[in-house]
Design a protein that fits this description.
Elements lengths: L9 E6 L2 E8 L2 E6 L2 E7 H22 L31 H13 L3 H8 L3 H10 L6 H16 L4
Helix pairs in contact: 2-3, 3-4
Length: 158
């Protein structure tokens, strides 16, 4: 039998009542959580991300004392036993005051890292909230803008 093989155009799954979807859009694969567009990358970029995720699995397995398959071409990492402190507001609900502080810092030109440190939130939390509040159109735009802000802050003075 001769013919084209079927191509998956979309794949979705649910975790803790959140529907996640991976869609093939042109030359890119886009990742959504609910209606929120989180990320779009080429297939090659997704393969790299997959390798990175495998490395995280290896680290988690090492911490648990179990073995984990390491994909070829991926260098195993050593596991660090250092602890990190969580941001003060991590895991708490966003309040109107938090939203106002976030907006003020972002419009002032702060980076995600600076904003997160100031309001006690993680960088991904700050980035997602900027989209939820319609301050930025999508998560990719947030990170592009953040990169631009970091580059401005590190540019040599003329």
């Amino acid at each position: 039998m001769c013919g084209k093989s079927a191509q998956i155009q979309s794949m979705s799954w649910t975790v803790d009542k959140t529907v996640y979807e991976l869609k093939h859009e042109g030359e890119k694969l886009a990742f959504y959580a609910g209606r929120l567009h989180l990320l779009a990358m080429t297939l090659a970029e997704w393969k790299i991300l997959s390798g990175v995720i495998d490395v995280f699995g290896q680290i988690k397995a090492a911490q648990a004392g179990t073995t984990h398959h390491v994909p070829s071409g991926v260098t195993p990492l050593s596991v660090s036993t250092t602890t990190t402190t969580k941001p003060a507001n991590m895991g708490t609900r966003w309040t109107e005051d938090h939203d106002k502080d976030l907006a003020a810092l972002w419009f002032k030109g702060s980076t995600l890292e600076q904003t997160g440190a100031q309001i006690g939130r993680t960088v991904p939390s700050v980035a997602s909230r900027l989209v939820i509040l319609d301050i930025e159109p999508d998560i990719e735009s947030v990170y592009v803008e953040n990169r631009s802000r970091r580059n401005k802050n590190t540019a040599p003075a003329s």
